[in-house]
Amino acid sequence: MALQALPSSWVAFRKILSHFPGELSLAFAYGSGVFRQAGPSSDQKTAMLDFVFTVDDPFAWHSKNLKKNWSHYSFLKVLGPKVITTIQNNYGAGVYYNPLIMCDDRLIKYGVISTNNLIEDLLYWNNLYIAGRLQKPVKIITMNENATLRAALDKNLRSAVTAAFLMLPESFSEEDLFIMIAGLSYSGDLRMVVGENKTKVMDIVKPNIAYFRELYGHILQDNPQVVYKTQQSRLEIDKSPEGQFTQLLALPKTLQQGIHNIMDPPGKNRDVEETLFKLAYDPDCGEVVHLGLSAIVRPSSLRQSTKGIFTAGAEGQTIIPIWPCRAAHPAGSHAVAK
What we know:
By secondary structure, the chain is an alpha+beta fold. Helix content is 45%, strand content 15%.
């Protein structure tokens, strides 16, 4: 499960949510405006607040939001909620972002994703986009009683631990583990080469070890393949071929298939389980897992960034605060969101 919001910030976030249509299966806040980060993103007071809204019916939600917050949308709003929903679901990573919005005197951006698409990403890592965001500490603002969604959130965290184990040595620190987990969804992301702070992952983890520990502690305690030395903040895992095969079998299906595509040469026609069994004995197992992650993240992030040019529109850099909740981007530039 993701972390619950602290009472003080929860009230502020609930006020922001009140400007949007309800019917949210999940809403959470994340990023440097919510959790302290080291480096250039360390000023929480001026950082943009990032939100994700999960909705059962994107068409109905966008229809209501267009009536309530018409100015939030780019030129695509003139095409109506049906086109916006189609772009959200069928292009990029299944999420539609409206950035650079002034709401209750804070600059925010918010993404909208369907509940079904989020559950699939959490379980199978089809895009590892919002699922990747939920592998890091977030603040839950609201969540309904959807048992399937709750189970998928937990499965996503367990999958993150398993993938990280496969890329780590036999003995490592808590910080090593959390840095590896936080970096999963950046594997192959072109923005980490161009534009993003190169130390972004460390900047996320180092000030927030306690939050990562709260998020993953129970999973590590319950895992039969790990010795979790909480007093020393160190872990030891089973790196035998048998142990690695068990871990490989527990990976999300899209990552397993990506590994299979890397490992299975033309003409061999192995099944996925046979490929994973062979990889468990390979000293380069961790590197192949990383390549499999990159094969998911690179195209997903590129498609989502390209989509962001259109969903964000051609907006300016100057922010004009308009209370309570209005778009803050005059003409002249664009923003790409994650």
